[in-house]
């Protein structure tokens, strides 16, 4: 049986042994419309109440606005959440990473980030970014570090650097229509105990549009197609998901997906509609 948190949410274990919720709260495209702010804030607060205490954000999102929104949502309950943020590759020099982290800390209203990621590969040498990560860990400003949008060659390069094998997660695009990681990246990470954090598990809604297989499986379970798509991503150990949920109703819908268990018949039907690629392919990004 998978481990559960006190709130009954399945967990994923990080390489250093800490457990995080398998399902969290993403904030990409949040804090962009002031008229939605109160609804988005209520969604984040409800998510924490429901045990979805993994919150993912980035300095990129709404030009720092998403971090400010998260900071407001976690005010007074910082110790309840596992907070993830990211440094832009254009800021990922040694000094730039430290400055970017300090900016994120100010916007988030906290003294630490639980998991700090390099958002994607840029022009700065990885050695510089890693030096900054290690310095930030030593200073207590971040607790763990990881990467995002890293393919197998990127991870192999990372593992060859001093301290590189200490990476705690790789956040990548993974959903029913983007299954390429199953052939190479996912096995590589699982063999080394590195969790994969799936962003855009609904492909920004595109996988849900008029798909008979999803509708059929959803009907069998008395669920929505979105819940089936999310349960499919979460079917594997070592994989977490961080869908954006901008309303309380969407948060509740996502939380219910954790309780779904897809059958062999379900998986076969979904495989037919969303087949795994036959050959390895470069990592896809949104």
**Helical residues, percent:** 25-40%
- Helix tally equals 10
Distance between the termini: 33 Å
The residue-averaged pLDDT reads 96
The main pleated sheet reads as:
8 strands, parallel
Spans of at least 5 consecutive residues with low confidence: none
Determine the structural class based on helices, strands and strand pairing.
alpha/beta
The fraction of residues assigned to DSSP E strands is 5-15%
Structure description:
The strands form 2 sheets. Strands 3-4-5-6-7-8-9-10 form an 8-stranded parallel β-sheet. Strands 1-2 form a two-stranded antiparallel sheet. The protein is built from 10 helices and 10 strands. The protein has helices at residues 37-49, 65-74, 94-108, 126-138, 152-159, 185-191, 212-221, 225-233, 248-257, 264-273, and strands at residues 11-13, 19-21, 25-26, 54-56, 82-87, 113-118, 142-148, 170-173, 196-199, 239-241. The chain is 37% helix and 14% strand.
Main attributes?
37% helix; 286 residues; two-stranded antiparallel ribbon; 10 helices
């Amino acid at each position: 049986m998978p481990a559960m948190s006190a709130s009954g949410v399945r967990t994923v274990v990080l390489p250093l042994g800490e457990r995080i919720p398998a399902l969290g709260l993403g904030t990409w495209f949040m804090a962009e419309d002031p008229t939605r702010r109160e609804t988005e804030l209520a969604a984040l607060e409800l998510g924490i109440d429901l045990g979805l205490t993994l919150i993912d954000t980035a300095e990129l999102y709404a030009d720092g606005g998403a971090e400010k929104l998260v900071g407001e949502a976690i005010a007074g309950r910082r110790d309840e959440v596992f907070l993830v943020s990211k440094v832009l590759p254009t800021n990922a020099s040694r000094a730039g990473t430290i400055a970017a982290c300090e900016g994120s800390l100010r916007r988030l209203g906290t003294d630490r980030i639980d998991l700090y990621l390099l958002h994607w590969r840029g022009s700065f040498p990885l050695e510089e970014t890693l030096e900054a990560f290690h310095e930030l860990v030593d200073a207590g400003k971040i607790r763990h570090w990881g990467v995002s949008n890293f393919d197998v060659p990127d991870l192999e390069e990372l593992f060859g650097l001093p301290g590189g094998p200490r990476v705690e997660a790789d956040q990548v695009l993974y959903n029913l229509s983007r299954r390429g990681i199953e052939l190479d990246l996912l096995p590589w990470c699982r063999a080394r105990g590195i969790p994969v954090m799936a962003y855009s598990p609904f492909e920004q809604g595109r996988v849900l549009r008029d798909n008979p297989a999803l509708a059929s499986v959803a009907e069998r379970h008395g669920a929505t197609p979105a819940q089936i798509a999310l349960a499919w991503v979460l079917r594997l150990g070592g994989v977490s998901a961080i869908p954006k949920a901008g309303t309380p109703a969407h948060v509740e819908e996502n939380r219910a997906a954790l309780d779904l268990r897809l059958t062999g018949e379900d998986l076969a039907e979904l495989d037919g509609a969303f087949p795994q690629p036959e050959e390895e392919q470069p990592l896809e990004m949104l």
